[in-house]
Amino acid sequence: MENALQSEAVTKFNDYFVSQWLENTNTQFMWNAHGARHRTISLAEAWHKRLNNEMGKKKPKMLQFLDILKKEAEYIDWKLRNFKFDISLKMRTRTHNKMIKN
Prior knowledge:
62% of the residues lie in helices and 0% in strands. It is mainly α and 102 residues long. The protein has two domains: 32 residues, no CATH class; 59 residues, no CATH class. The longest helix is centred in the C-terminal third of the chain and has 23 residues. It is elongated. The N and C termini lie far apart (56 Å). 0% of the residues are buried.
């Protein structure tokens, strides 16, 4: 910050930023994902990213899209059954994709 423009507006903004986002422990959970299991703001965002990765392109064909949604539903059902019976879940890997494809 030594090279930053020195003006009252910049100083006010810097003071606000430091107090609101860096020193305020009540808001750190909003931006600091260190050590967190889910490193995105929302699980919906993570799910959307996973779907996009599965599709491999921005505009998949309708049948491909429906097939991916069906496989995702099967995976979620499997995950919920394991959770219900307290079976430890490992992070999703490429072997998961092979399991779903078969």
